[in-house]
UniProtKB/TrEMBL annotation:
Residues 53-196 form the Ribosomal RNA adenine methylase transferase N-terminal domain. It comes from Polaromonas jejuensis. GO terms for molecular function: methyltransferase activity. One of its GO terms (biological process) is methylation. Residues 1-25 are annotated as: Disordered. Transmembrane segments: none annotated. SUPFAM superfamilies: S-adenosyl-L-methionine-dependent methyltransferases (SSF53335). The keyword Glycosyltransferase does not apply. This is Class I SAM-dependent methyltransferase. Signal peptide: none annotated. Keywords: Methyltransferase, S-adenosyl-L-methionine, Transferase.
Length: 213
């Protein structure tokens, strides 16, 4: 079967030849490492998420069925590109990234009409979502480290997630530590918990489904 020309493919990144692709991954990896060295607690790992973790997030969040997806902490965009590859042609992805250099990197590497990027904190989720004009998200996926941020900030972010998610929608958090549950479970109930061990470091993947009422 012939591949569609890359410009027409609804993906976060066109699929370039292998040498170019590996060059892109290397560049993303170096950019990510530099981000970790700038803000270790905020970035939380030295390398971007593995392909296995990306695919687990796509499945847990049911990205392929979603109309609106929000990503908190896209980093250098590996997870973002995986979501865009899985998303429907008419779906929308809003990403919120705190790091200005990651934000610039994403703006120059992710070309997709379904993608909106905001430089800011997940604490501004309600305002940024309202400003985007998007409806209540079907899925919110977060890699921001709840364990290293101030508890007040973690609580505000958890409250915003529970507020904006559509009833029946999914919140998926991938984390080294389990603190996220202390902030989210009082609002969204008990999560499903899994491990993704094919990742550096292995991470817990929590999935909450917002009750219908
Ligand atoms: C573990 S990295 C995940 C990066 C990428 N999604 C991946 O999986 O490779 C966490 C990301 O969250 C961002 N971040 C941390 N705190 C944030 C906040 N309060 N709001 C938005 N982004 C934040 C960091 O700058 C970093 O890009």
């Amino acid at each position: 079967m012939l591949n569609k020309p890359s410009a027409l493919r609804p993906t976060g990144r066109a699929t370039p030849p292998a040498r170019q692709r590996h060059g892109g991954q290397l560049r993303d990896g170096l950019e990510f490492l530099r981000g970790f060295l700038r803000h270790p607690a905020r970035v939380g790992s030295v390398v971007p998420s593995s392909r296995w973790l990306e695919q687990r997030l796509v499945r847990e969040a049911r990205v392929a069925e979603a109309h609106t997806v929000v990503e908190l902490g896209p980093g250098t965009g590996g997870t973002t590109a995986a979501f865009l590859r899985a998303m429907r042609p008419e779906a929308q992805l809003l990403a919120i990234e705190l790091d200005a250099i990651f934000d610039q990197h994403l703006r120059s590497t992710v070309q997709d009409p379904r993608f909106t990027l905001e430089l800011g904190s997940a604490e501004q989720l309600q305002d940024l979502l309202a400003a985007s004009g998007l409806p209540a998200p079907d899925a919110i996926v977060s890699g921001i480290p709840f364990s290293t941020m101030a508890p007040e900030a973690a609580d505000r972010i958890a409250a915003a997630i529970a507020e904006v998610l559509r009833p029946g929608g999914r919140f998926v958090a991938y984390q080294v530590r389990a603190q996220v549950a202390a902030f989210v479970s009082p609002r969204l109930g008990q999560p499903q918990k899994r491990w993704e061990v094919v990742n550096v470091p292995p991470v817990r993947v929590f999935t909450w489904v917002k009750p219908l009422r």
